Amino acid sequence: MPFAPVLHAEWIKIRTLRSLLGGLAGILLATTAFSAASASGGAGEDPLYSAFFGVNLGQIAAIAFGTTAVSAEFGGGALRLTLSAVPDRWRWFAAKVTAIALPVLAAGLLTGLVTLLVGEAVLGTAGPQWTEGLRGAVGCALQLTLMALFAAGLAAVLRSGVATLSVLVPFVLIVSFVVGDLSGGVADFLPDRAGQVALHSTWDGALGPWSGLAVTALWATAALLAGAWSLHRRDA
Hints:
mainly alpha
């Protein structure tokens, strides 16, 4: 079967599952709500990060979306039915990944722009400059997308939504709120921290906005390759 109809089938799965549509809505709501709450406390030393602080919580919704989209295939024999229609597992997984990435990217771009507008409204003249604000909006979209893909790859390896979320949610919360203040160390190269450099006005570590996103992209790529290999090697 050609790639286009496989992608169309995967898109139908996503848009007909309420939990997945709720996950996309959660990305927007969590990011903007917590960003507005952070901005209401003042700009601090980094007005851009104050405006986009909610990404710390929004990326959990993105992780849940990527996890659910993949783990749903491993319940009730759904994967066996899918692979009977699309025997090429590599093609199917590529379509699944694309069907995850595109809506999260679209929701992420909307989230980034809305978050920027809310941050500018709350912070006023103390808010970020529009040029760095637009960089933050794009960085927000890319970070959310990459974290969703990272979760999708891990879910393909673990074959369980509960196991994947049990690993990633505590990992993200611990890194972000406990060891996240350790600048210039190993924490800067972890997936949820590296990409968030694009959400800062200034940075002290080895990574910049785009190199940080590149590091997160490497994590996501590694997880997806591991997921594709696991799917190819193991029985449905």
